[in-house]
Amino acid sequence: TRVLTARDLADAETTTSADRSDDGDRNDSERHGETRRSYRTKAIHVKNCRDGAYTLDASLRVAKVFVENCENVVVTVRCLVITQTLEIWNCADVSLRFDEPVATVQADSCRDCALIFKKRDHLGAVVHATCEGSLFVRWPKETNVVNENEPKTYSKNPSTESSMTSIDLVANERATQPAFGPVTLSKSGVHETPQFITRLIDSVPTTERVIRDKDEYPTTAREMLLDRADLAAAGDADAKKAIERNEPIELDTSFARAEKRRVLGNVSFKNGDYAQAVVHYTSCLQLDSNNHVAYANRSACFLKLGEHERALADAQRCVKIEPGFVKGRFRIGLALHALGRFAEAAAALAEAETLDPKNAQIKDALKMAAFKARQKGTMGGS
């Protein structure tokens, strides 16, 4: 067992810059499975460790703790973690033991790991995703707790865990609706990895599916129902109707989030920040790949930025999804015109004019493209 103390960190502060080089630090970690720390933030990073035990002594004060790519390791956290946040990922057969309460543990892509607390009330929130095998949360059984109030216990070997309350969060994920899976296909056609949160709800450990609302804020269906009730009590008509109709909470928020991102793109475009608008429209399309308006709007950005080939590609994607969308046809014409393909531009703009015969911008662009096409023809295509 290696015990890391405040003296260790103080000694580390006095090491030379050569000793702190990124390459040397990384190579040493890879060879020996050392406990690493960030000198500026005093974050502890336990990485690439195998078959060992590490203790963060009570004398330490650290900002955060990271455990990455470890196997058959026990990490005991006795110190104050200022942010009360710990992250563990890509680990197998790792146990984390906490002497103090922890607000948030983030566990991703772990297999057969355990989070062990001194008592039930020390459990804050465990946010978990893509874990396999088991992910246990454990604490000593409380003798003053009535049996029927004990949370359900899952254990591979109950006889060895008789003194501990053990809850398998991976098993809880499978029991959570909608159907469990490493990757779930949303209605928008975009793959999003399910994420879950386990915490004490009325003193009972409860696992819930994390939902991102339109503002990207992480919440749950239960919390959204409570928010709806609060809105209805405050006089919100839509919330009242939803309650009267017993409308379910929409778990797939990809369309609403995509629309919010598209609106942010519109704001950036109006402000003349076309590059930022591209970022917003692209993030919209990551959630809703069939959003023809976002393609048309991003095409307009590329036209402003002088990226005419990309503008043409986006406009073509737009009309492939929605052939009757006039802005898509219009921007195909503008992109072709900018590329010097005047005859093709005139043909595309003529199609746009058919869809919106009273649009003055289309008429002017068509006249110019037709003129340029005739001029180019008269000059022998030079």
TrEMBL record:
Any one GO molecular function term: Hsp90 protein binding
Name the residue ranges with Basic and acidic residues bias: 19-37
Keywords attached to this entry: Repeat, TPR repeat
Query: Where does the Adenylate cyclase-associated CAP C-terminal domain start and stop, copy by copy?
Result: 42-143
- Would the keyword Ligase turn up in this protein's UniProt record? no
Task: Report any Pfam family annotated for this entry.
Answer: TPR_8
Stretches forming TPR repeats: 258-291, 326-359
UniProt xrefs under SMART domains: TPR
- Protein's UniProt keywords contain S-adenosyl-L-methionine: no
Spell out the PROSITE patterns in the cross-references: TPR (PS50005)
Biological-process GO terms, alphabetical:
cytoskeleton organization
Q: Which domain of life is it from?
A: Eukaryota
Q: Which InterPro entries match?
A: Adenylate_cyclase-assoc_CAP_C, CAP/MinC_C, CAP_C_sf, TPR-like_helical_dom_sf, TPR_rpt
Region of interest called Disordered, as start-end residue ranges on this chain: 1-37
Looking up PANTHER family in the UniProt record yields: STRESS-INDUCED-PHOSPHOPROTEIN 1 (PTHR22904:SF523), TPR REPEAT CONTAINING PROTEIN (PTHR22904)
This protein is called: Adenylate cyclase-associated CAP C-terminal domain-containing protein
The protein's organism comes out as: Micromonas pusilla (Picoplanktonic green alga)
